[in-house]
Design brief:
Layout (H helix, E strand, L loop, with lengths): L3 E8 L3 H12 L5 E5 L3 E8 L2 E8 L5 H9 L2 E8 L3 H10 L11 E2 L5 E5 L9 E5 L5
Parallel strand pairs: 1-4, 5-8
Antiparallel strand pairs: 1-5, 2-3, 3-4, 6-7, 7-8
Length: about 140
Amino acid sequence: MFTSVHHVHYVVRNRDAMVSYIERNFGLKPVNLEEHPGRGKDAMYKVGTTLIELTEPLDPNSAMGKSLARNGPGVWHVAWRVPSVRKAAKELAAKGNKIRGEGGLTRSPRGYTTVNIEPESSQGIWFQLAQGSAKM
C-alpha cells in the first residue's frame, strides 16, 4: 500500500530557531515559511520527493500545543504516500479502522488528500496516508 514517505511533520518550540539550526547544520533552506494567526508558524522543506514540515504552535490549548507542552518537540506524524487515498480509506475502514473526515478523506490546506487512522484503531499510532503534491 505505501509507496514512499509523503511528509514528516515536526512540532517545534521555535520555528525560526529551528530553521536557523537546519540551515547551519544541514545546508537546507525552507521552500516556504507561513504564519497562520492563532494556529501556528510553519516552515516547509523538500528533500527529494518528501516534504518536511515544521510547526511552532501558537495556541497552547490546541492538540499540537498540548503535545508540545507534554512531550516536548518531536515528530507530530509521518504521512505515507499511497497511489489512491480513496481505495486506502475504503480498505482500512473495511478492516475495522476508525477513519477521520467525511468519507474517510481530508483535504490538506496544501492541496493533497489524506486518510487519517484514529490512534485508537492503530495501537496508539496516528497513521496518515497521502496522495498528491503539496502546493507551496
